[in-house]
Design a protein that fits this description.
Layout: E1 18-24, E2 30-35, E3 41-46, E4 54-60, E5 69-72, E6 78-84, E7 89-95, E8 103-109, E9 114-122, E10 128-134, E11 139-144, E12 157-160, E13 167-173, E14 179-185, E15 190-195, E16 205-210, E17 215-223, E18 229-235, E19 240-245
Antiparallel strand pairs: 1-2, 2-3, 3-4, 5-6, 6-7, 7-8, 9-10, 10-11, 11-12, 13-14, 14-15, 15-16, 17-18, 18-19
Length: about 250
């Protein structure tokens, strides 16, 4: 039971902060990426474990609902996947400094209206993997960089395009770097799960763990130390929180 806790109001220098993504560095310090109604994408850098002091850094401006997904590599450098609403592309920020004053931005996919709701995970070699939705294809997509600096990367792979799928993806990796992705099937109102057979994910196994009424939106996936999948998700029909556990 969480009997002891604290809540801190963080500075944001923006209006109506939303779309948050939190990650911890190797010392336990919190980093929170978020967006504002004013079109800014920012990150809060906590100065101590209690986050009693913090700094707000602006990463990008002029964006509408970028849905940032934050990860931190083994050198405590931030990586942020996001949707560029101006070009309708999936992009990735690679910070070269701890406060991201120096950064490189890479376009990972530009096929139609793509990159919405990205889910970013770094593997044990700090290589970025991103699951995301392509609205024009109504598909779940996956892209993996060839190295930690993302100097090269293959074209994004269509993981599933049966019906209207790919909304609310949540990505996890097994100990061998294989992707596991939970996502919502809008057309059928089902929770779906993609199990990649290889790192390239050319022939994934697609499962439908729950198809009872309208389920699967707002899902969140984790892969445990035994490479088994756990998913929390919303049951819209019964207004319940549900939990899927792979045995």
């Amino acid at each position: 039971m969480c009997s002891s806790f604290s809540i801190v109001a963080l500075p944001s220098t923006g209006s109506a902060d939303e779309e948050t993504s939190l990650a911890l560095d190797s010392t336990g310090l919190v980093r929170i990426a978020f967006s504002t109604f004013l079109g800014n994408m920012r990150v809060v850098l906590c100065g101590d474990l209690a986050c009693s002091t913090s700094t707000v850094v602006t990463l990008k401006t002029g964006l509408i609902f970028p849905n940032p997904s934050l990860a931190i590599d083994s050198s405590n450098l931030m990586r942020v996947a996001y949707y560029d609403s101006n070009s309708a592309d999936l992009k990735l920020i690679l910070c070269s400094t701890l406060n991201c004053a120096t950064q490189t931005t890479i376009t990972l996919d530009s096929t139609g209206d793509t990159g919405r709701l990205p889910s970013l995970v770094l593997d044990s070699s700090n290589i970025p993997h991103v699951a995301f939705e392509n609205r024009d294809l109504t598909a779940l997509m996956l892209v993996r960089c060839d190295d930690a600096a993302c100097t090269t990367f293959p074209s994004a792979v269509v993981v599933d395009n049966t019906g209207d799928v790919g909304e609310s993806p949540s990505l996890g990796l097994t100990s061998g770097g294989l992707a596991r992705i939970s996502y919502y099937d809008v057309l059928n109102g089902d929770l779906k799960l993609a199990l990649c057979d290889t790192v390239a994910c050319t022939s994934p196994v697609i499962e439908r763990p729950d198809s009872a009424s309208d389920v699967g939106s707002f899902n969140s996936l984790e892969v445990n130390s035994a490479d088994l999948v756990r998913v929390a998700y919303y049951d819209a029909t019964n207004t319940n929180l549900k939990y899927y556990r792979e045995l």
